[in-house]
Each structure stands twice: as structure tokens, then as C-alpha cells.
Amino acid sequence: MSVVGLLFLLMGAMAVGSALLVVTTARLVHSALWLVVTLGALAGCYLLLGAEFVAWVQILIYVGAVVVLLLFALMLTRAPTGVQTGLTTGNRVVAAATAGVVGLVLVTVVVAGFGGARVSVDEESVGSATSMGDAIFRHWVLPFEVLSVLLLAALVGAIVLSRGRASSGEETP
Amino acid sequence: MPTAAAASIFPRLTRMDGYYGSYVPVLAIIVVGAVLVTAMFLGNRLLRPSRPSPEKQLTYESGVDPVGTGWAQIHLRYYVFAYLYVVFAVDAVFLFPWATVYAGLGWVTVGEMGVFIGIIAVGLVYAWRKGVLAWT
Amino acid sequence: MPLLFPLVVAALLFAIGVYGVLGRRNAVLVLMGVELMLNAVNLNLVAFDAYLRDVLHGGQVLTLYVIAVAAAEVGLGLAIVLVVFRGHGHIDADRMRDLADRDAVDDAIAAESAGESAAPSRSGVAGADPEPVAVTAAVES
Question: Interface pTM (ipTM) of the complex?
């Protein structure tokens, strides 16, 4: 097995293992921190698959911004540090069974469909910042512009939802 | 240069491909950093005497006795600041590939990026007009 | 490298995300499960981009867009979670039954869960966070 394959297995095992800890740990803040490990390991997977720019965007956006937002929300809601009971629902057995079935079906499908396929990465297939810029601004401009509308809508929605009663009180006269 | 140096140290890794070879220094730094941190904490644990007492287990707050718990609720208003940061981080991410190609693709691309930033800037103006940017 | 490596990792991540969404009570942890599922999809997109040697880099560009969409999604989702917290004093997914299609069984479950958790949660709300009452008062006026 190649060095790249071994490194990918290592990164993938890291991602899956820390993802398991994300959904099972009994400490809220640890859950967010294990999510950082998962997302970082996935960035390593992207690097190994030749998606250079996507990997660094993953670090910037997911690890740098989304997890910060999640930690922020944990600070804004009641998130005591330390072990907590009752973080899983009563139907956790059904949830685990559903997840097991989903995983089994997906793994069966991909093994049946792509059992012998191989990925090879070389200079031409690497998604560097230049090739991504070329692809976005030559071929995928319309979804890019639509994305700005989506971000605007989400920003306005978040502002409307999270304005406290103080600012709505100022507005009424 | 660093790739060439790495190639002499890790010939087995860099032999495969130029793309992976360029990341060998990154991998080396991560490995060295992990080993260094592990070794330092391990050495610390092996060398130090361990006599815990309740006073030593207290959170260190610049010499003052800690008050309350580790969790304190911050005001809901700060969430909008955090989210503005996220939106503009996403915005900035698309500036990187744009900066590498706009010279080659011409003014149309500059206009497209202008529309993108303009639409998101509407959100910033909305936040400003609604008064959520006021830091009181 | 076999294509199966990324695909199996993505499938497992997706299944773990499904468990996180269905099995967690804290709404922020539910959103973390959603993030795991989105990342599994992203890994699939990147893997097939590399496998098909896409000259337009459609998979990787779509991954960038999914990351941006995920940022928008998590921002709105957390805003909704914070509104729920302000109104109810908790973000427990099991106890958010305002929109439930109620029947006898549901009412029995609701009464049971209210009975077992009423004392600690009520004291917690009254002691630490007077805001829910004030917010409802403001809305009514």
C-alpha cells in the first residue's frame, strides 16, 4: 500500500474516531473541540485527495469560523463545563440502530459500486487556488453570485432573530 | 528550496509526486511539533513531584481566588458580531482564488466580485441601520 | 489509493452524523451532527472530483459552495436555537413539543417528562435567567 493510502487511512480513522467522540462525549465543550479534530483530519483527507484549496478553506471556515460560532452558542446557552447526564435522548437506541442501518447501506453501496476503483492525484488534477479561481470565475459564476444572496438572507435572518427586546423597543416610536 | 531539502531527507515520500512532495515539510513540522509537545509534557510528568492539594487544584486567576463557576453567560447581542465575522470569512475565502485569476480574465470578473461583495455589503448596511453594530 | 477509502470514511461519518442528529438532546449538538453529515458529503464530492479527474473541478467548487452554505445554515440554526433558549430557558430537543401533533400518547409522554424534569429546570430558569419572562411580557405589550 502506498504512503498516501496509509496517510489517508490514518486521517480517516482520526476523523471517524473523533466524530464518534463528538456524538458520544458527555461534556458539551469537549464535543465542539472533538469536532475541531474531525474537521482538521478531514482537511488532511482533502489535501491527500489533491483538493489543496478546499483543505485550507476547510481550516479557515469550518475550524476557524463555524466551530467558533458553535462555541459561542454554547456560551450563550446553558453549557456547564464538566460531565453532564441526559445529553442523549430516550430514543438513543433507535437512533443508533438507524445510524447503523444507514452506515451499513451506504458502505454496501459504495463497496458494490466502486470496489476496484483507484484515485490517482497528479499536478493537473490538483485544485490549487489558481485552478479553483479559474473554475469558479470561468464556469461556476452563477452559483457563486447566488451564494452571496444566500449569505445576505442568512445574515438578515440572524440579525432579525437575535435582536433583543432593547433594540425592538427603540424601533417602535 | 525547502522541497529540495526535504527530498534529500525523505526521498521515499517525495519520489512519488511533486504535489505531495511540496507538503512533506508541512507534515514534518506537524510531526516534530507533536513529538516535541508530547516529549515535553511526558518529561514534565516524569520529573515533577505530584502532591495535589485543594488549593493547588483551584483555577489560577492571576493570584485572585476564583469567583463563581467556569461558565458565564454572555449577552445574546454578541452573536450577531460572531456571525458577521463568519459571513465575511466566507466572503474573504472567495477573494483568494479571485485574486489569482482576475488579471487574466479581465474586468468582467472584477464586476462579478463587485456584485458578490456588494450584495453582502447590503447585509452589513442592514446591520448598521438596525443598530446592532453599536458597541455599548 | 483505492477510491473506497474516502467513500467508506464518508459513509461512516454520515452515519455518525445521523446518530448525532437523532440521538442528542442539546440543540447545538444536533447542529454538530448536521455539520458531520455535510462534511461527509463534501468528502464524497472531493473524492469523486479526484476520481473522475474533472477538468472543470466541479466537485471541488461545489464543495466550496457547500462549505459556504453550511456557514449560512449553522448561523441561522444557532440563531433559532438562541431564540428558543430565550423563550424557553432550555434547548432540549426532547422538550420542544410546541408544534407536536398531540394525541393521548404524546400528552402522556409530555406529562411524564415534565414531571421528572420540572423541579430542576424551573429552579434553574428562575435562578439564573429572568429573561424569558421579561421577553414574553415585552411581546405581549
Answer: 0.89
